[in-house]
Amino acid sequence: MTTDNTVSRLRHRLTLQQEVQTPDGAGGYTRSWQDVAELWGEIIPLTGSGSSAKGSGKELLFAGQIQTEISHRILLRYRPGVSAAMRLVYENRLFNIRMVANVNEKRDTLELLVQEGVAT
């Protein structure tokens, strides 16, 4: 069960999106993004300075052996089906999901390591 402390920190309204590929008639496809859900989450910057910075993206890069620089950690209430093939939108910012972890395997909180910027 999600603790009251975790719930009170989920103050960012995020849109979860998944990629949709539509055939273009020439043997290829057109890529677009479809909204899946509106979620409350906490966005935690991992680079920069100040009390909100919890480390650097490069430290997570080496510790987690992820091949891209991680810029933020996002916490959400547990939701099945969230994957690294998805992205989150907050206001006009895009967060490409690079890793999804079920915190303590309790199915109450997801921790996402993300890279801010255009989807790749």
Task: Please explain how this structure is put together.
With 120 residues, the chain is mainly beta. The chain has two helices and six strands. The protein has helices spanning 4-9, 57-64; strands at 12-23, 29-45, 72-77, 86-90, 93-102, 109-116. A six-stranded antiparallel beta barrel has the order 1-2-3-6-5-4. Strand 1 (12-23) and strand 2 (29-45) form a beta hairpin. The N and C termini lie far apart (34 Å).
In short:
The protein has 120 residues and is mostly beta strands.
How would the global form be characterised? globular
Number of helices: 2
Strand order of the largest sheet: 1-2-3-6-5-4
Task: Describe the largest sheet.
Answer: 6 strands, antiparallel, barrel
User: What class do helices, strands and sheet pairing give?
Assistant: mainly beta
Q: What percentage of residues falls in helices of 4 or more residues? A: 10-25%
- What oligomerization state is this entry in? single chain
How many β-strand runs?
6
The fraction of residues assigned to DSSP E strands is over 45%
What is the CA-based Rg, rounded?
Answer: 15 Å
Defining traits:
mainly beta, globular, 120 residues, 6 strands, six-stranded antiparallel barrel, 48% strand
Please give the structural blueprint.
Layout: H1 4-9, E1 12-23, E2 29-45, H2 57-64, E3 72-77, E4 86-90, E5 93-102, E6 109-116
